[in-house]
Amino acid sequence: MGKVIFDISMSLDGFMTAANRRPEEPMGDGGQRLVEWAFGDDPRDREVLTNGVSGLGAVICGRRTYESSLPWWGGDGPTGPARIPVFVVCHNEPEDAAERGVDSFVTGGIEQALELARDAAGEKYVTVMGGAETGQQYIKAGLVDELSIHLVPLLFGSGTRMFEGLGVEHLHLENIASVQTPAATHLRFRVVR
């Protein structure tokens, strides 16, 4: 069974979206800057992205991430032509869900979504991506093996904080990799159990 990796781009002050989120700006005003590293031409950023997708077997996200990202993901989902399965944690399946074949809507909670994603991924890993609430639920439940943080050199001052509301328990991490580019510092941590 593959590991579970929480993967997110984040501002230096801990925000994964900027303020003023709305349908036409799902990442808030200027929030798109958080993912520019993934579309740039720095070979180190490209390598981080390529390595991140190479062992990926399934993706888990929350309903808000699914709905706000659909226009950018297109018909193939977040992994493009690779068409890796996406499991959307939600309370109910949307009536107007796109018939893309990569999306599955899971109404039985985060554990059920993880079980389905692991079955689909086989020996490959599962990524929990996007959505502070979904990410926090997986981290709090102890279901994440690694954190992959793409720390972007900017300060938002407000928006959606990623690691707020995790509770009072300490989460011990081991630094296992880092790559620094002008666009982002890519950090990889193993959760110490």
CATH class of the domain at 1-100 and 139-170: Alpha Beta
Radius of gyration: 16 Å
| Overall form | globular
Structural class, please?
A: alpha/beta
CATH architecture annotation name of the domain at 1-100 and 139-170: 3-Layer(aba) Sandwich
- Indicate the proportion of strand residues: 25-35%
- According to DSSP, the number of beta strands is 10
- Main beta sheet: 8 strands, mixed
Q: In angstroms, what separates the terminal alpha carbons? A: 18 Å
CATH superfamily of the domain at 1-100 and 139-170: Dihydrofolate Reductase, subunit A
User: Overall pLDDT, averaged?
Assistant: 89
* Helix coverage percent: 10-25%
Can you count the helices? 4
What is the string of SSEs from the N terminus onward?
EEHEHEEHEHEEEE
- pLDDT under 50 segments (min length 5)? none
CATH topology of the domain at 1-100 and 139-170: Dihydrofolate Reductase, subunit A
If strands are numbered along the chain, what order do they take across the biggest sheet?
Answer: 5-4-3-6-1-7-10-9
